[in-house]
Amino acid sequence: MSETIPQLYFRVRENGAAVFKVDTENKQRRMELDQIAVINIRNGEIKPHGKTDLTQDQIAIIRDWIAHRDALLKHREVDDILRTVDHLNLTAQWVQSKATADQLEDVTDALLMAMYDLRGVLVRKKADRMLKDKSQNP
Question: What's this model's pTM, rounded to 2 decimal places?
């Protein structure tokens, strides 16, 4: 573990985080976490918890955390899609080499519908980008 203890701790939640002030200056000489804010990562809102008045330093640390968290989530999103491409390739190999007739019966319709839907969305989006590029670069 790092030798320096951070000023704030962020407990990740579904749409953001709960922010805690890390307190090590107490009588019991234990680390305590006191909630000071709640963050909504979707809209960047920072709500002080209870009657807490956030300092400018705390707000700056929270905004920095929001920026890093947003970048991390965007990276993970693309990484998840690239993993899906790998998984589709593995699925094709499984279908070709290992799948039984019963297994194929269980998955074929769902796979075909999902792939049809995905293909349609990808083709529309690609066409939109091509038309936009063409109109911007005649």
Answer: 0.74
What CA–CA distance (Å, rounded) separates 138 from 126? Answer: 18
Kindly list the strands in the beta sheet with 32-40, ordered across the sheet, starting from the edge strand earlier in the chain.
8-13, 16-23, 32-40, 45-48
Q: How far is CA 137 from CA 31, 127, 130, 131, in A?
A: 60, 15, 10, 10
Residue pair 65/17 in contact (Cβ under 8 Å)? The answer is yes
Specify the 3-state DSSP secondary structure of 49.
coil
Long-range contacts of 107-113, Cβ-Cβ distance < 8 Å, separation of 24 or more: none
User: Structural domain boundaries of the chain?
Assistant: 1-98, 101-138
pLDDT of 60-82, one tens digit each?
A: 999 999 999 999 999 999 999 99
Looking at residues 29-42, what average pLDDT do you find? 91
CB 108 within 8 A of CB 94: no
CA-based nearest residue to 32, from 5, 4, 66: 5
8-state DSSP, 105? H
